[in-house]
Amino acid sequence: MRHRSTVAVLASLTLLAGCTADPLAAPTKGGTFATPSGAPTLSGPYAAFAAGMSKPVVDPLYPERGTDAVDVLHYGLDLDWSPTKRTLTGTATVRLRPTRDASSVSLDFTPYTLDTVTVDGTSAKGAVTREKLVVETPVRADVPITLVVGYHGKPTTTAWPTKRGDAHPLGLTIDSEGGIWTMQEPFGAFTWYPVNDHPSDEALYDIAVTAPKGWTGVASGTPVGQSGNTFTYRSTVPVASYATTLAVGRYKKLDATGPRGIPVTTWYRTKDTRYLPMLKRSPAFLTWLEKRFGPYPFDSAGLVMVESNSAMETQQMVTLGEVQPQRGDKMFDLTTVHEYAHHWFGDAVTLTDWRDMWLNEGWALYVQKLYEQDKYGLTDAEMVKASRQRDGELRKEYGPPSEPDPAEFGATNVYTCGAAMLRQLHQALGDERFFDLARGWVQENLHTQQTRASFTAYVNRKTGHDFTALIDAWLDSPTTPPETGPLPW
Q1: What is the DSSP letter of 220?
Q2: Is the pLDDT of residue 396 over 50?
Q3: When you count CB atoms within 10 A of the terminal residue's CB, does the N or C end of the chain come out lower?
Q4: What is the mean pLDDT of residues 49-76?
Q5: Taking all residues of the chain, what is their mean pLDDT, rounded to a whole number?
Q6: What 3-state class would DSSP assign to 72?
Q7: Backbone φ, ψ for residue 342 (5° rounding)
Q8: Are 234 and 21 in contact, with CB atoms under 8 Å apart?
């Protein structure tokens, strides 16, 4: 994720080097799946959703979002947007596995008007209060159910938990032309569908978006096809709710081919036409990233332009605010590479809870700085000098990256200080071992949720050297740790 204040930091920091498709079809491509340790075996029609099994947790920073009482396996979303009525009409088919016996099921949801609620085909009582949909139905641990919710209403956003000056609402936003778009980190997916809105509960998705004639519906996932003015998308690998996206607008389509034949789709508006030379760079960005960090981890890629000053690494389809290309070629390139880097570090391998945001943003920022070195001549000396200066300022202002303030989500310390730690690992390991570590981290943990502890254990095992003290120092110290040199390999 990049918001305006982080982009501003970059200028001063030359820091560190209708009907959904058949949801029961088995996953085909996109990597292997790691079933959570100790997870039950799914049978019958639910077996097709085994890749969506997770071990949900209660978030220590935002405990009011998400729940550990359910593990959503699959979301089937049929959505219809009316710009004239400013109304979203939806049917959400949620296949979920309760993790314990209970008398009800709860998901995050905005108070839309509920039209229908059924559980396994039988009508059920449901109500939305305090951004929670509670459905009264007895459930048993590890016995999956299918919850279907029909709803309609005008979208509302939710507050972004930060004190930053560039704060903006999160969730589904209506733009100046009557279209919609969304950015929702650390939460906000609940503003357009009922969801366990926490990254520890990743799930599979089928999304069908019906748009007005002449408009386009865009969503995260691999494009499945178009029937009339209904556009369908499928995610056969797990997706965290914050990494889903939805946009409806008067879009034009630009098709391209990325590395290994991956389809790359760019959705842009007429007013974006002058930026087409920039927007056509996605295949080159992906090729650069693949050479260093291994195969692109999804079946398709792309980006969608929206009315925002931000950018977001939404899975398979970067959501790019229109202000980004206005900042010029270099800033556009750095921002877009940053978001695509997240498809490896954050989307393919996802944090378990928001204490470890550095695990997403540290990697993405460091990858971005490596790109700046390669393409824009940033030197090691410039990188180190600016990195250490800014690292010290941010630790003093916000604390170390391992102790994020829940009221300051996305503070720059989780970017800069996390990237500084990775630079130290790179310096200690050298190029060959560092990039082998980075590729292995993604490929060996593909489509799983990870933590600081698992990252440290992986680094130590992969390298054969105990880097625990180095990692702990850079993540926990209130002041910038001393520089360390390369190890005598």
Answers
A1: S
A2: yes
A3: C
A4: 98
A5: 92
A6: strand
A7: -60, -25
A8: yes
Question: What burial class does residue 26 get, using C-beta atoms within 10 Å of its C-beta: 0-12 exposed, 13-18 middle, 19+ buried?
Answer: exposed
pTM of the model: 0.93
Question: Rounded CA gap, 242 and 134, in Å?
Answer: 21
The first and second tokens of residue 92, run together, are: 């959400």
Mean pLDDT of 383-401: 94
| pLDDT for the residue 40 | 86
**CA 316/CA 244 separation, integer angstroms:** 9
**Distance (Å, whole) CA 364 – CA 1:** 9
Q: How many whole angstroms separate alpha carbon 383 and alpha carbon 405?
A: 27
Q: What is the pLDDT of residue 167?
A: 66
Please enumerate in sequence order all residues whose Cβ is within 8 A of that of 10, keeping only pairs 6 or more positions apart, or say none: 331, 334
The length of the chain in residues reads 489
Residue for token pair 């945001």: 357
For tokens 């994020």, what's the residue? Answer: 404
Which DSSP symbol is given to 2? B
Tokens, residue 296? 């692109």
DSSP result, 272-333: GGGGHHHHTTHHHHHHHHHHHH-S-SSS-EEEEEES-S-EE--TTSEEEETHHHHT-HHHHH
